[in-house]
Each structure stands twice: as C-alpha cells, then as structure tokens.
Amino acid sequence: MSHAPENWPTLPAMMLARAAQWADRPLFRHWHGGAWRSLSWGDFALQTASVAAFLRARGIGPGDRVLLVSENRPEFPIADTAIMAIGAITVPTYTTNLPGDHAHILRDSGARAAVVSTRKLAEKVLEGAALAEGLDLLICIEEPPTAAGLTGHRWEEAIATPGDVAMLAAECASAPTDSLACLIYTSGTGGLPKGVMLPHRALLANRAGVVPLVKRLGIENQPYLSFLPLSHAYEHTVGGFLLPSAGLEVVYSRGADRLSHELAEITPAILTAVPRLFELLRARILAGLEKESPFKRRLFDRALALGLRRMDGPPLNLFQKLQDRVLDRLVRQKMRDRFGGKLRAMVSGGARLDPDLSGFFIALGLPVIQGYGQTEAGPVISVNLPWANRRHTVGPALRGVECRIAEDGEVLVRGDLVMTGYWNNPEATAAALQTLPGEDTPWLHTGDVGVIEDGYLRITDRKRDFIKTLGGDMVSPAKVECLLMAEPEIHQALVAGEGKPALVALLVPAEGMADKVADAVRRVNAKLPTIERIRHFSATEAFTIENGLLTPTMKVKRRAVIEARGAEVEGMYR
C-alpha cells in the first residue's frame, strides 16, 4: 500500500519516513553528563527498530498496552514510536504520579509492560503494580529494581537488539489509521482519570491542521524548547510528533529553574507552557524591575502602556507612534533578547490564559498566543496566530475541525481529531460523544461554555464548574479565581459556595504577602457584581502535586480541595 507524501497512515510511518529523508539532521537535544547531546533522525530510527524488535521478542504485540513513565528525554519518543510501530498502545503516564495513581492506570488499562526512566520511578510503578495485576515486563533506562514475578531489563539491552528499519517502516506504512495509538489518562480535576482512546488519525488530523501554520512561520531547522511533560496530551502530540515532523529540532528543557538560562542559550523559535509559567515569568520581570532606576521603570511602564493601546485602541497619534518605535528599541528589544531573541510564538495551553496576562507580554514585544484543546480531541482544537492574535479568544478552529455552540452554550467539536471514546467506560463515552438529531457523526461535548465571534472561539466557563448559590444564582468560580490570582498578593485561589448564601475563597498567599491578601480581595470585589463577591476568605496551605490537590499540568483539583479542606470552607460560614 503506497501513500502520497505527508499522507501517512500512522505516527510511526511518518517518523520513519522522515528519518529516511533526514537521516543526518539533528532531531533531539538533551542535557546529559554535563553537556548538551544531540541525536540524529537516523539514530532515532535505528534505536526505534531495535526497541520494537526487543518488545516483540518478549511477546508484546498488537493491542497490548505499554506504560511509559519518563521525564522528557530522547528515550521517551523512541519507546513511544517503537510501541506504536508494532501495533501496541502507548500509555504515557506522569512522573509525578503516586503508586495509587499507577495502580489505577495499570488496573484500568491492563498494561502488560512498562518502560520507565529511573530506578526511583520504577519502584513507584512496582508499588502500583503490586495493587494491580498483569504487569510482567519492565524496561528501565537505569538499573531496574527487582520484583517477584516480573522480568526486568535495562534500556541498553533493548537498543542493542538487531532491528530492521526498512521492514518496520514498510509494515507501518500499511497499518490502519483508525488503530489506537495511545491511551492518555486525563488529569482528573474531579474523580478518577479516564483513559482517552486516541487513534492515529486523531493525532495526524492535529498535524494536518497545525503544520500549515508552522510552515508559514518559516521556522524549519530551528529549535523548539520542550518544557511541558511528554505524558501531557499536548506535548505528546505537538512536541513528540508534530513539530519534529515539520522539521524542528526538539530541545528538552532541564526544568523551570533553568528556563531563563536555556532561553538565552538555545534561542528557540517556539516555546509552549501552561498559564502558571507565564504568571511566574511576569512576577520575575516585575520583581527585577523594582531594582532598576526610576527612569528605567518609567520607560518600561510607558512601553507597556503604548503596547496595550496599540492592541486595544484608541489608535496611537503620530507622537505616540514615534515614542513607541523608540521604546521598541530601548525596552522591547531587551525583553525579546532576554527570551532568546528568536521566538516566533509562545503558546499557552492547558488552562485559560488571562487576557491581562497575555497582554502584558504582547505589549512588551513577546508573541504570546493562546490555544484551546482537550485530550479527547488529539488535543488541539483551535489556536491564535502571531499575525492575527485576538488575545481574548482561543483563536479559530484548525482546518478540518468543525466547531459549534449548543443551545446551552456548550462548545461542540467534530472531525478526525476526536477520540474513539473512553477505555472501558461506555457510559462516559456515550455522554461525551453524542449524535445530534438528523446527523450520523457524533459531536464531542467538551464541557466548556463559549461563543464564536467572527470565526474566533472564546471560552467563557466550564459547564460543570458553575456554582449555584442558596439564592439560586449561577456563578462561575473560574472567573472570580482568575481575577484573584491576577493580584500579586495571591498565589493560588479556589472559590466555593455551592448551596450556600455567598461565595468564599481558599487563598494561598504569595511569598511574603500573607498580611496583604485582604487588600487584594477588596480590589477584586470592587470589580464584581454583588453575587460574585467573596464574602469571606481563608489563607490556606499551597495546593501541590505532592498533596494531591494539583494536577501535573498545574490545575487545581476542585473536588479534591473542597473535600480535603472542607472544614476550612465550612468554618467561613459560621
């Protein structure tokens, strides 16, 4: 079976075809042994074929699920591609998962094998496996721990296995595009994570929608700084397959604490992050500004003000335009240099990006754009563009994506990007994928509420997160939380009040700001109608991944927080 260029049936078919085309080009760059190391496309293909042969020799085949637990490093996409190439199904899992999380995913997915990066992570997986059944093969990049009834192997053994790249590529080129590529478990802001079944067609549909935009940016052969975990649906699709196949070199960041240095060193063309990172970057910029002279602070403030006016109006007059050009050289160019000087797009996803936050960066000359997606949609649904950026929206839907608003305001999505369903969960699948009267193809019911204005999608709320107060008023906690966290005194916020006479808030103060939180709440309340105002608040301990109150993508687990801090919430009503 032959396929036209860029019309591959599966992700491994695409990656191995690119490797044949670009054998000597750098594909991945990672920090190892105190220096940056590079892996070429050709070496990637050789190692992928070896790992595929190794897995097959140990009985892993079509339909088998394989857990993949690793930090961002080249072994992740090599294992990922090898698993898919033999018809098995990858189950990418967060390195921050606790043994109980692994137990749920192992039990639900029925994974037979696991590829794990470090011994410490492998021990967590084995703790989870002791509570589940079926795991009988472990491959560890480091020395694997021992466990009764489980065969452990080192990564070196896998990549030393003879493999046939050409034969594997030919096999992948004839694989069905509707076969499952991966099971990605949702972060679970409420309830247990569900396994989203994503076929190859869904991820390739995302690629078909995004690659024309990437090509227009003209960034082939330039670096992409991979910061989000590869187990996240966005990074798995975009950083794992989409951008590499479009010709970008993927550079794996060493973490948030190294990001500022890496931006200057790597000079990436694209960076993706969650809104929380942009909040931290803004805080660092403003903290550094406090140390500058009053004159430099005035220049910064003027550059910010003119940049915002250029976006939002009224139009700049001639004198302001001249000022703006001068400030672009004096202020914005320094800011662009601080971020590497070559950024064409800083993409925010995973949660709502406050327009004031994105406006701050755009006004200072940094191309922050917001996209929208869900794991259930491959995951990219829409994205703004640097040359047509409406920051109050999440951009127009990708090519090939149908998007409409239901009568109750819910955002509905249809197209090849949509999942097959939820693994072992027909009830949840039926609720999420519904066919409208007179139609044959189901729509994905996203659970988000929004509007479409001039082709641009704007998300206003989460449908199931509305709070109904005792007086019958429907209030969006996300709106109020966003305003609270925009205040420099507040690090995290959760608004509660279901069935209560008024709203209350659990607030995590920013460092050194505990005595100033009340001022921030007063400022926010002044912007809100009476029914949305915070009646009482409680300063609380931080929501973290470690205490189970934050997802790996930095989203607060609303239900878990209200359960864990229920006494604090109830205390505010006494």
TrEMBL record:
It comes from the Bacteria. This is AMP-dependent synthetase. Residues 18-423 form the AMP-dependent synthetase/ligase domain. GO terms for molecular function: ATP binding; long-chain fatty acid-CoA ligase activity. It holds the Pfam family AMP-binding. SUPFAM superfamilies: Acetyl-CoA synthetase-like (SSF56801). Coiled coil: none annotated. Keywords: ATP-binding, Nucleotide-binding. The keyword Transport does not apply. PANTHER family: AMP-BINDING DOMAIN-CONTAINING PROTEIN-RELATED, LONG-CHAIN-FATTY-ACID--COA LIGASE. The lineage of its organism: Bacteria, Pseudomonadati, Pseudomonadota, Alphaproteobacteria, Acetobacterales. One of its GO terms (cellular component) is membrane. The keyword NAD does not apply. It catalyses: a long-chain fatty acid + ATP + CoA = a long-chain fatty acyl-CoA + AMP + diphosphate.
